[in-house]
Design a protein that fits this description.
- It is a single chain.
- This protein has about 500 residues and is α/β, with parallel strands linked by helices.
- The chain has 19 helices and 18 strands.
- The strands form six sheets. Strands 2-1-3-4-5 form a five-stranded parallel beta sheet, sandwiched between helices.
- Helix 13 packs across helix 15 and helix 17 packs across helix 18.
- The protein is elongated, with a radius of gyration of 30 Å.
């Protein structure tokens, strides 16, 4: 179905001109001349975009805009304004309009603006649909409502009722085992065992016995028969974590078990059958492991029926704060401490950190704070390493350098090249030296902020347009902008 654009313009000649501009564009273009006609049209056929003239014969464009926002109609609104009323248009943008076009509107400007706003509207509707359909703030052991996690929840909901093998990948500490447990407890096997094996923590010579069990006398110390994880998980789910750590010979035996559902305990002579679901996980790049011949290709395709990629914590927006608050409340209760909240500047610090250890690292940080301190709020001085050594990434490069060096930075004149510093290299025989411009080295967070703010400026303050240009989630840009604005207000 084609998207709809409604032009509300009392000048018939201008309407004809604009229709001519967009006659070959892939959307439907409608025109009404009065505010009352606009309301009737919007109620019956809600358009995805409205181009709204400010001066109409019956109702002002400002009133129409207010009515649209009061009715919570999910449409973008572009104000069409003459040069003398640009200030009014800017005020209307602050009150809910998405953009403005100055009359006389040029063909290229009109087509580009319509294209961008229709694309943004489609993106917003998709985001809203995902959030409305899978708007979990807590889900089967997970904390967080960010879009990356909503996507994970959606896959879990879809795959859990089936018997399909699942392969979970992601950095350490992202919650791969929590994901496996969520699949198990939402499946028909929820009342059967969930057995987890960490393939990286078991010695190679014990791996076969750990998974398939052994009979008495199978090896020195095997004084009795022992069931392995495959039999213990019968009827339920076997979770093999860090699968890529398993040696190739054992991978071969695992593959046969996955193909037949049968295995022979170590030292035994009779095959045993079992009914279970296999979920595997790795913190490595499985494709790289394939290329390096450390992971069998046939096993990869056997277990990788439904892949789930767990997002790193740094990509989960405000989930960072929700998780921190959850663990603060949990540990304060367990340890009988008075902590009940996190100061805003501390939350900003948490949001700016890259969290290489992901959720597990954040959990340990909060645990450390609760154990070592007695207070009602988490303060900056409570933060342990490495957070207590980080300078705020929201500072400008000049402020950061001033804080680190305790000197006032002096900018060279525009026509003078910055000074070059000589840095010794350590891998040359003659101790050669190379020169680098250290003024060009800046914190990545500062560069990120500059790029995002430049994109927003280029889009005349429209965050959604900037998100499209940067190929980022609009929620990510809104979150970062909110953090920067809040930090500057607290300064």
């Amino acid at each position: 179905m084609l998207q709809k654009v409604l032009l509300v313009e009392d000048s018939t000649s201008l309407a004809i001109l604009y229709k001519q501009y967009v006659k070959s564009e892939p959307y439907e273009f409608f025109h009404v001349t009065t505010g009352e006609d606009a309301k009737n049209f919007i109620v019956k056929n809600p358009p995805q975009l409205i181009i709204l003239d400010l001066k109409l014969p019956d109702i002002s464009g400002k009133e129409i805009l207010q009515w649209i926002r009061d009715q919570k109609i999910p449409t973008a609104v572009i104000i069409a304004t003459a040069h003398g009323t640009i200030d009014i248009a800017v005020t209307l943008i602050q009150n809910g309009a998405n953009d403005f076009l100055e009359k006389p509107i040029q063909a290229d400007r009109l087509k580009t603006s319509i294209k961008n706003h229709l694309k943004n509207n489609k993106l917003e509707m998709l985001v809203e649909d995902i959030q409305n359909t899978f708007n979990y703030k807590k889900y089967q052991g997970f904390i967080g409502s960010s879009l990356p996690m909503q996507a994970v929840y959606k896959i879990i909901d879809a795959v859990a009722p089936t018997n399909a093998n699942v392969f979970i990948s992601g950095e350490s500490g992202t919650g791969k085992e929590v994901c496996a447990e969520a699949i198990h407890y939402k499946s028909q096997r929820y009342n059967k065992p969930f057995v987890a094996i960490n393939c990286g923590a078991i010695p190679r010579d014990l791996m076969e016995s750990e998974i398939f069990g052994h009979v008495k006398g199978a090896f020195t110390g095997a004084t009795t028969d022992r069931k392995g994880a495959a039999m213990l998980a019968n009827g339920g789910t076997l979770f093999l974590d860090e699968l890529c750590e398993m040696e190739l010979e054992m991978q071969k035996k695992l593959l046969r078990f996955l193909q037949t559902g049968r295995f022979t305990p170590l030292g035994g002579s009779k095959e045993v059958s079992t009914d279970l679901r296999i979920i595997c996980a790795t913190n490595r790049d499985p494709l790289l492991e394939l290329n390096e011949k450390r992971f069998r290709e046939d096993l990869y395709y056997r277990v990788n029926v439904v892949p789930i990629k767990m997002p790193p914590l740094r990509d989960r927006d405000t989930d960072i704060i929700d998780i921190a608050r959850f663990f603060l409340k949990k540990y304060a209760k367990e340890d009988n401490k008075k902590f009940r909240a996190i100061k805003r500047n501390v939350e900003l610090k948490l949001c700016h950190y890259s969290w290489p250890g992901n959720v597990r690292q954040l959990q340990n940080i909060i645990r450390n704070i609760v154990v070592l301190h007695n207070d009602t709020h988490v303060l900056m001085e409570h933060l342990p390493e490495p957070l207590n050594k980080l300078t705020s990434s929201t500072k400008t490069p000049e402020k950061s350098q001033e804080k680190q060096n305790n000197v006032t930075p002096i900018k060279p004149p525009a026509n003078i090249d910055p000074p070059l510093h000589t840095v010794a290299t350590s891998n040359t025989e003659n101790d050669d030296k190379k020169t680098i411009n250290t003024n060009l080295i800046r914190p990545m967070a500062d560069i990120e902020r500059e790029v995002i703010e430049n994109a927003i400026d280029y889009c005349e303050g429209n965050v959604l347009n900037a998100a499209v240009l940067l190929e980022l989630s609009p929620s990510t840009l809104y979150r970062k902008k909110q953090i920067w604005d809040t930090y500057e207000e607290s300064d």
